[in-house]
Every structure is written in structure tokens, then in C-alpha cells.
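Table S2 (text version). Query chain:
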Amino acid sequence: MNIKDKRKEIRSLSITNHFINRYCERIWRGKQKSFPIDKLSGIIQNEMTDRMLNREVIALKMFRHSKKIKLTFDRYNIIVISENTLITIY
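Corresponding C-alpha cell output:
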């Protein structure tokens, strides 16, 4: 899967403010960038494109419309997705 396809899959997801806050807390270790939430959303989506493995993106594509699903992210974290929306990360 090329970078363009990965970006398309990740950009098709909605992101909650809770997910953005938890991403900053758990992935960036509390070093929240001083940008508005909508700008952070784009930054996080771009970073997720770089961090996610191809098999993680394929699983995301297959299960993103599920009621609730937990998928691996960047080998060590778990993202929770519900009906095409990123809910939280841990």
C-alpha cells in the first residue's frame, strides 16, 4: 500500500476532541503543540499516515464501520474506532 492510499484511508475518518487530547498525552508525551484543534487534527492524521504499518491500515479499512473495534497503532498502542470515528488511543 502506498502513502497516497494510506493517507486517503486515514483522512476518511472523523476524529473526536478526546482522541486528539489523548494522542497528545500518550504519543507526544504531553507536549501538546500550540495549534487550534482543527489544525491538530490534520497534523495527527499526517503523523498517523507515517506511523501506521500497511497491515494496520488494511485492518482499519476492513473494520472502520464496526460498532466498536480496537486496532493496533504503531506496533505498541491501541486505537478505538466506532462507526468510522477515532474515539481514543492508549
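Notes on Table S2: Residues 3-89 form one domain. The radius of gyration is 12 Å.
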